Amino acid sequence: MKFFIDTADIEQIKEILPTGLVDGVTTNPSLIAKQGKDMRGIIESICEIVKGPVSAEVTATDYENMKKEGLYLSSIAKNIAVKVPLTEDGLKTCRELSNKGIMVNVTLCFSAGQAILAAKSGATFISPFVGRLDDINESGIGLIKEIYEIYKNYNFQTSILVASVRSMEHIIESAKIGAQIATLPPKLIKELFIHPLTDKGLKAFLEDWKKTGQKIIPDNG
Ligand code: E4P
């Protein structure tokens, strides 16, 4: 399973990058707005340090302007994935851009029917929002299962990019299904490292080791 980071905060990206766990980045207009800086500058800085796909979202809602914005965004760097919303104009834009060899991330997907349309429009990634579905008492993970099965039946090449991830359970359940990618808030990546038995076990090992008075690398080594 690939991990993308769901943030436009360059400092957060720089902090996690050395782990080698970052396969890409997703941003959206809300995440960019939170930074209070120029969008182009933010996207350029992210693309300079992240090799994998970096999603940058259009904000126009009509086909002609979405296409223009998509082409503009894709010219910022080779690894840009243009993010378009799952609307009729968004999918027309998706078809146009993917025909030109540009990666497209179709966002705001909330149903299996929408996911079929995105795959048929040549989307590189489909972003079903699991957390926001859970928020309205529908099953986000249930949607991932449905999309996975459908895409497999037709050998669609679109990757499932699980979005709006709120918990460890979302990550584990998506991985069990076989979703190719999850985009995670930085806080959740950090949580994945943690288990109380790891901390407890390490503490005990180090206490026992201290009693031996040894060093792995001797002072004269
Ligand atoms: C990712 O592409 C989405 O922009 C993001 O995961 C949305 O998450 P949220 O529902 O927590 O805002």
Oligomeric state of the chains in view: single chain
Straight-line N-to-C gap = 41 Å
Which ligands are bound? erythose-4-phosphate
CATH topology: TIM Barrel
The fraction of residues in strands falls at 15-25%
CATH H-level superfamily:
Aldolase class I
Shape: globular
Main sheet: strand order: 1-2-3-4-5-6-7-8
Q: Please give the radius of gyration in angstroms.
A: 20 Å
Instruction: Summarize the helix and strand pattern as letters.
Output: EHEHHEHEHEHEHHEHEHH
Please count the beta strands (DSSP E, at least 2 residues each).
Answer: 8
- Percentage of residues in helical conformation: 40-55%
Tally of domains = 1
- What average pLDDT do the residues reach? 97
What CATH architecture do you see?
Answer: Alpha-Beta Barrel
CATH class: Alpha Beta
Helical stretch tally: 11
Tell me about the largest β-sheet.
8 strands, parallel, barrel
Brief digest:
The protein is α/β, with parallel strands linked by helices and 221 residues long. The chain has 11 helices and 8 strands.
